[in-house]
Amino acid sequence: MIRVLVPLVLLLAACTTPVQDEAWEGIGPITFVDGRDTTADRRVAEMVERWNERAGQREQAKFVEMPSSTDAHRAQLTARAQDLAGVRGSAECYDVMAVDTVWTAEFAAAGHLEPLDPAEFGVDRMLPKAVEAARSPDGEQLWAIPWRSDAGLLYYREDVLKQAGVDPPTTWAGLRRQATEIAPRHGLAGYVGQFRLYEGLIVNAAEAIWAHDGDLEHPDEPGAKAGVRALAEGIEQGWIPRETLDYDENASLDEFRSGRALFMRNWPYAGPVLNRPGSEVVGKWAKVALPGPSTLGGWNLAVSRCSPHQKTAREFIKFVTGDANQREMSRLAGFAPTSTDLYDEPGLAADPLRESLLNARTRPPSAHYDELTSVMQDTLHHVLKNPAAIDRSLDQLADDLARAKGGR
Ligand code: GLC
């Protein structure tokens, strides 16, 4: 009997092994990379823990944090992807990458990403502008799944404006007036935003330009010049503190949170941070849409081509971008969901974020966005410090942009 069974068992083993391998193919531990977790109470790290609790031992995710500036984040992801170009299945690979909406086209064009099936992730339920930015220009391929969207908001000291008997501003002129007149009476800085030499500067400059009916892509036209001039004059006059030339999102948030500014432009994640213990403005702040269109921000999740565990990577992305997790991250971390239905639920239906997102405008979609933004950043930072150079420098920028767009 035993003599018959042994070969039978061996034969069965021989038959099942390849089938099993196939079943496990693409399944295994993954590395998930996002920017530094600046959410109140480290909600992104906690979300990865939630995945790890429900995923089996085989599919654990390791969370790696990049620098919080999107430019430095991009540079590090690019360096790793280039090192592993052409390699399939490396343990060094960043399996799932959070990629800023502005860099997605570039990552896709460089061949770092795996195409994804829209139906598998239900992208039909997501904000069309966010999905469009994750597709190839011809719309054929989907390269990433929109996870959290982003739109700017104007945070303000509700206690101070109430005392002054005014509503929050709805125009740039109103913002300037209140920041100039009311803030000094309370020993506050007027308006803080993000004017450091990095991508956040483009976001803020674009918003000022659009608020003055200009076009970011045509900086030599009057509207664009008026928008940039409004910022430069604000810095010159002091209602926008000069220190903001070195502020990113976190620096401006610190300033507002410490009770030192009347107005702040920031993303939705700032709200929960302002309510944390240690904040000087708990119960004293409120938010409205910006006095003009916001820049559409946001982060997509992509599967790296070098990933050995692409099935797990896709399952992880489904978990993170699913409605249940998006709802949770909106409530806990203030993230702007990409799932449109969630905006009709009580938590968001009355939130100014909804209006801000609906009116948000995109930065120029391009696989060469890094070149476009670096010329724009240099010029804009220079003219914010030297308003006299605005006319000449923005005319020059228009030429430089045309060249960069042509890839020259
Ligand atoms: C936020 C936005 C992103 C933008 C960045 C600029 O992270 O989501 O799109 O590029 O801020 O600092």
Summarize this entry quickly.
The chain is of the alpha/beta class.
Set down the secondary structure blueprint.
Elements: H1 2-24, E1 30-35, H2 43-54, E2 61-66, H3 70-83, E3 96-100, H4 104-109, H5 118-121, H6 128-132, E4 145-151, E5 153-157, H7 158-164, H8 172-185, E6 189-192, H9 199-211, H10 222-237, H11 249-257, E7 261-266, H12 270-274, E8 285-289, E9 296-303, H13 310-321, H14 323-333, E10 336-337, H15 346-349, H16 352-358, H17 369-385, H18 390-405
Parallel strand pairs: 1-2, 1-3, 6-7
Antiparallel strand pairs: 3-9, 4-9, 4-10, 5-7, 5-8
The chain binds alpha-D-glucopyranose (GLC).
How would you describe this protein?
The chain has 408 residues and is α/β, with parallel strands linked by helices. It has 2 domains: 9-150 and 296-358, D-Maltodextrin-Binding Protein, domain 2 (3-Layer(aba) Sandwich), CATH 3.40.190.10; 151-289, 3-Layer(aba) Sandwich (D-Maltodextrin-Binding Protein, domain 2), CATH 3.40.190.10. The chain has helices spanning 2-24, 43-54, 70-83, 104-109, 118-121, 128-132, 158-164, 172-185, 199-211, 222-237, 249-257, 270-274, 310-321, 323-333, 346-349, 352-358, 369-385, 390-405; strands spanning 30-35, 61-66, 96-100, 145-151, 153-157, 189-192, 261-266, 285-289, 296-303, 336-337. The strands form 2 sheets. It has a 6-stranded mixed sheet. A 4-stranded mixed sheet has the order 6-7-5-8. Helix 2 (43-54) links the parallel strand 1 (30-35) and strand 2. Helix 9 (199-211) crosses helix 10 and helix 9 crosses helix 17. The longest helix has 23 residues, at 2-24. The protein is globular. Mean pLDDT is 94; it is low at 8-19. Alpha-D-glucopyranose (GLC) binds next to helix 9 and strand 9.
